Amino acid sequence: MRENVVIRTVSRLAVPFIQVFALYVIVHGASGAGGGFQGGVVFASSFILMTIAFGLSSVKKRFNNKWIMICSIIGITIYAGIGLLCLILGGNYLEYGIIEATLGIPHLHGYLLDAVEVGIGITVMAVMTSIIYDMAERRGESP
Amino acid sequence: MRAKALLAVLLIGIILFWAIEDMPAFGDPQAPATQYTGELYINSVLPDIGIENIVTAILASYRGFDTLGETVVIFTAGISVALLLRRGGQL
């Protein structure tokens, strides 16, 4: 890939803001517009920008395929684990109200929704990044 | 063949425009779509769950099992793309 100072500098500046905005969208899911799916895609778009600007191999040094698989499994495990916790505490699967009633912490239901959104966000981010990696590699050489 | 296709498109278009008259006005509180479960969710989300965002409450709590399935679908899609495009490389 050709060296381009403008693209590299702008994306170096933009990537942290995109990631912070993605975390904001994920965590803000319970009280405003936002959620795990949207935030995960925004987070993955920061990796797409890094892939376009710096090349696939330098991004893969920071976030390789092994960690992508681990992250996508962690996200689903958070979600399913919260559901299983409800089952252990004597409710139905994914019945969050049981956890709030058993532990006696107020507003825990909303926090559990936030945790679920975080799990969704991690999975979506990892899967989108994985697809982008595979499609970028498909071209033959890594740019 | 093109004349037949054009005729079909025109006919369906006329039927659809004809049906617009019976649609409820935008944001009409008397519309059938806002009559039943919408009212129920608006009234019961805050006492049930305690968060302000009704969409997230429905998505993650009332329809939590569905959303778990959606997440698994996305995970499966990622696995499938990896299997199809990576062709037996190291995971």
Automatic annotation (TrEMBL), chain A:
Coiled coil: none
Transmembrane segments: 12-31, 37-56, 68-91, 111-133
InterPro entries per the UniProt record, alphabetical: CPA3_antiporter_subunitB (IPR050622), MnhB (IPR007182)
Positions of the Na+/H+ antiporter MnhB subunit-related protein domain: 6-129
Membrane topology, record value: Multi-pass membrane protein
Keyword Cell membrane assigned: yes
Pfam families on file: MnhB
This protein's GO CC annotations: plasma membrane
Keyword terms: Cell membrane, Membrane, Transmembrane, Transmembrane helix
UniProt subcellular location: Cell membrane
UniProt-recorded name of the protein: MnhB domain-containing protein
Originating organism: Methanoculleus palmolei
From TrEMBL, chain B:
Location of the MrpA C-terminal/MbhE domain: 32-87
The keyword Transmembrane helix belongs to this UniProt entry's keyword annotation: yes
InterPro entries reported for this sequence: MrpA_C/MbhE
Keywords for this protein: Membrane, Transmembrane, Transmembrane helix
Ranges annotated as spanning the membrane: 67-85
Protein name per Swiss-Prot or TrEMBL: Hydrogen gas-evolving membrane-bound hydrogenase subunit E
